[in-house]
UniProtKB/TrEMBL annotation:
The SUF system FeS cluster assembly SufBD core domain, residue ranges: 133-358
Family label: Belongs to the iron-sulfur cluster assembly SufBD family.
Family annotation (PANTHER family): PROTEIN ABCI7, CHLOROPLASTIC
Taxonomic lineage of the native organism: Bacteria, Bacillati, Actinomycetota, Actinomycetes, Propionibacteriales
One BP annotation, GO: iron-sulfur cluster assembly
UniProt name for this protein: Fe-S cluster assembly protein SufD
NCBIfam families from the UniProt entry: sufD (TIGR01981)
Pfam families: SUFBD_core (PF01458)
Length: 392
């Protein structure tokens, strides 16, 4: 552990978070009771479909592989837990699945960007699951050194029952874009908790792309060490019939003059397609002069689909620059469709253009050209397969 990172971690000594959305963390599994679904943090999650990840399913599966394409200068290696820097982000498990994954992980995959390195090429990790029969646990730690600049992309493909913790640490002045692409097969269950610690004047962009899988539940949080840190949380998701996609976001403003900007957009179609977005920003009394905004937009394409969207703000100081949130959920816009059709565009193509336009602004904000192109193509594939059935 570098001296600068150690001092950053030790500097963040704050009172426990007093929030009904974020229980106090603990490494002791006994402190995390088996959820019943009545708890605030679990009430939207279909527990019966988690294959007992939240109970006692063994997390000893090994039917998966990891392929690494590390950019020059970046190290990406798996190390035993005892030799790892696990815990560097200060994260403490806040729910039972996270605590179980922490206890079960036998190794930590560590990605390290050296101080002052400016890495143009993205580092890509591909996790391929070979089956859902045996659940497995993973742990990833990404470290961005002082004044470094890099992009890290994690791809999830294949079939798996996967519980995971991800830690991300940005030292002072670092600039990191971290992307997860959940493009699992339709039978996969993935419960992941991600936590970022952002240093002084560091810039963190987190991009979540959720397309495949049966049940996806991703909890993403960030806190700050020192002033000037900036966090941007972007998400794109597309749920089909029977699919459950859940994102839970938490920006914990633990230092003054910090920023957070959250924008998630999702589309859903088909019977029992269900998306959940829970956003929360905590502005502590120490966090004077901060700026924050969170927004979630959902486009419901067919009957039988449901989107839950709950933005929250918890403010402990009035000395802030700006804070707000917004949430929209709407059906397919027949007026836009009529406008396009009146100009000679066929109905099917008109529907495609409306949905593509809905996602276009957030895709432009990603800032990783190859990923933007891939995401545009993935959405086009979804639309090509399903848009003909969107009859309103």
């Amino acid at each position: 552990m570098s001296t600068s990172t150690s001092s950053l971690a030790e500097a963040l000594e704050l009172a426990p978070v007093e929030s009904h959305l974020h229980p106090e963390g603990s490494f002791d599994l006994a402190d995390h009771e088996v959820p019943t679904g009545r708890e605030e943090i679990w009430r939207f999650t279909p527990l019966k479909r988690l294959r007992d990840l939240h109970k006692d399913a063994p997390l000893d599966g090994d039917d998966f592989r990891v392929e690494v394409d590390a950019a020059p200068g970046v190290t990406a290696v798996s190390v035993p837990v005892a030799e790892s820097a696990r815990g560097l982000s200060g994260y403490v498990p806040v729910d039972r699945v996270s605590a179980r994954a922490w206890a079960a992980a036998s190794s930590v995959f560590e990605v390290t960007i050296p101080a002052e390195a400016e890495i143009e090429q993205a580092t890509t990790l591909l996790l391929y699951g070979g089956g859902v029969e045996k659940a497995a646990a993973g742990h990833l730690l990404v470290r961005a050194g002082r004044f470094s600049r890099a992009v890290v992309i994690v791809d999830y493909v294949g079939s798996a029952t996967w519980a995971e913790n991800i830690e991300i640490v940005l030292e002072d002045g670092a600039e990191l874009t971290f992307v997860t692409v959940q493009d699992w097969n339709d039978d996969s269950v993935h419960v992941v908790t991600q936590h970022a610690r952002v240093g002084r004047d560091a810039t963190f962009k987190h991009v979540a792309v959720s397309l495949g899988g049966d049940v996806l539940r991703a909890s993403t949080s960030a806190d700050y060490v020192g002033t000037g840190g900036s966090v941007e949380l972007l998400g794109v998701y597309f749920a089909d019939a029977g699919q459950h996609i859940e994102h839970r976001l938490f920006a914990d403003h633990t230092a003054p003059k910090t920023k957070s900007d959250v924008l998630y957009k999702g589309a859903l179609q088909g019977q029992d397609a269900h998306t959940v977005w829970i956003g929360n920003v905590l502005i502590r009394k120490e966090a004077e002069g901060i700026e924050t905004f969170e927004q979630n937009d959902n486009l419901v394409l067919t009957d039988g689909a449901k989107a839950d969207s709950v933005p929250n703000l918890e403010i402990e100081t009035g000395e802030i620059e700006g804070a707000g949130h917004a949430s929209t959920t709407g059906r397919f816009d027949d007026q836009h469709l009529f406008y396009l059709q009146s100009r000679g565009i066929p109905a099917e193509e008109a529907r495609r253009l409306v949905v593509h336009g809905f996602f276009n602004d957030i895709i432009r904000r990603i800032g990783v050209p190859e990923l933007q192109e891939r995401l545009t193509a993935s959405i086009e594939d979804e639309l090509a397969e399903h848009v003909g059935r969107l009859d309103g």
